[in-house]
Amino acid sequence: MKRTKKGILMLVLVAFALFINGCATQDVDSKIEADTWPEKPITWNSIFTAGGMSDLSLRALAEGVEKKLGVPIVVENIVGAAGAAGVNAIAKAEPDGYTFGLAVVSTNTVLPYFEDVGYDPAEDFEYISQYVTVYQPVAVKADSPWDTWEDMISWAKNNPGKLKWSAASAKGAQAIATEAVFKEQGIEATFVPFQGGAECMAALLGGHVDATIVAEYIGPLEAGEVRLLAECGPVNIKGYEDVPTYKELGYPLHPMSFYGVAGPKGIPQDIVNKLNSAIKEVVESDDFYQKMEKLNILPIHVGAEEFGNYVRGAYADMGEELRKLGMIE
Questions:
Q1: What is the reported pTM?
Q2: Relative orientation angle of helices 197-205 and 53-69, to the nearest 10 degrees
Q3: Would you give per-residue pLDDT tens digits along the chain (329 residues)?
Q4: Backbone dihedral angles phi then psi of residue 135, each to the nearest 5 degrees
Q5: What string of DSSP letters covers 154-189?
Q6: Residue 143 and residue 226: Cα distance in Å, rounded?
Q7: The domain 137-231 is classified under which CATH number: 3.30.420.40, 3.40.190.10, 3.30.930.10, 3.20.20.60?
Q8: Contact 49, 77 (CB under 8 A)
Q9: Spans of all domains in the chain
Q10: Is the CB of residue 131 less than 8 Å from the CB of residue 300?
Q11: Cβ atoms < 10 Å from Cβ of 255
C-alpha cells in the first residue's frame, strides 16, 4: 500500500515537472520566434476600397513600419460586407505574426450588432495599436440649398423619403448615429450603399446622393466642391470649429472614429510588443505627421493593452446605447 502511494506521488511529481518544462519551452519558443520575427513579408488587410482615407493612412503607416522591421509589408484590399470581409480574414488568419489589418470603429464596435460578421470584436483579435483619430463629417455639395445642418433636417422632415444619403460603411458608427438622429426626428430618408468613402464622395460630387458621411472630405472641401454641415463625433474639426458636432447638437450617439492595427487572437506577446513599438516610432515621426496633416486627420499612438481595452469597452457601450434607442433587442 505504501509502495502504491509512493508510486502515485512519483507520477504526480513527474507530470508536474513535465508541465513546468512544457511551459518553459513555450516561453523560450515564443522568445526565439519574436527574436527572429519577421523573416518574410507581412500582409496587412485594408478592409475598404483603395484610395479612401483608411487605405491611404494604412499604406502610409506600412511604408514607415516596413523600414523599421526590415521586411516588406504588402497591403491588400479585401473589401465587402461593409468592411466585415477584410476583418473576418484577419480574425481567421494564422496567429503567426504575418497577417494584420485595419481595426476601425465601424467594423469593431457596431457592425456585429446588425450582421452575422463571423467574428467577435471582444474575443477574436490581438489589438496592436491605434495610429490615428479621424473626423467623419456630413458633407453636401457646395451648391446644395442647405447651408446648415438644421436646413437639411428641416427639408428632410418636409420631404419624406426624398433625402438620399450615404456613408463609408452602411452599418458603421457614423451611419448608425445618423440613423438614430433620423429616427428621433421622425425623418424618412433613403440610404445608398457604397464600398468605402472614396466611392461615397464620388457619388456626392456626381449628384447621385444629396449628402454623405466620409473621412475623405478635405480635398473636395479645400477645392470648394463641398460644404460641411456637422461632425458625427464629439470633437470639432481642426480648422473648421464652427461645424457643430453631434455631441454639441445633443444627440445620444457621437462616436469618435479611430483607425488601428489588429491581428488574429493568439499572436505571441513579444511579437505584439515588437510591432507596437515599430508603429509607435512611425506615428511619432515628423514624416508621418506631415502625411496625416495633409489628410486632416490626427496621428495618435495608443498601445496594445490600452487600445484593446478601449475597443472592447466601446463595443460593449455601443450595444447598451443601441438597446436604449430600440435599434437592437
A1: 0.80
A2: 150
A3: 444 555 555 554 445 545 545 554 444 444 556 789 999 999 999 999 898 889 999 999 999 999 999 999 999 999 998 899 999 999 999 999 999 999 999 999 999 999 999 999 999 999 999 999 999 999 999 999 999 999 999 999 999 999 999 998 878 899 999 999 999 999 999 999 988 888 999 999 999 999 999 999 999 999 999 999 999 999 999 999 999 999 999 998 999 899 999 999 999 999 999 999 999 999 999 999 999 999 999 999 999 999 999 999 999 999 998 998 889 98
A4: -85, 145
A5: HHHHHSTTTEEEEESSTTSHHHHHHHHHHHHHT--E
A6: 8
A7: 3.40.190.10
A8: yes
A9: 35-133+256-324, 137-231
A10: yes
A11: 23
List the CATH code of the domain at 35-133+256-324: 3.40.190.150
Euclidean distance between CA atoms 82 and 174, whole angstroms: 13
Residue identified by cell 495610429 is 131
Q: How far apart are CA 26 and CA 311, in angstroms?
A: 29
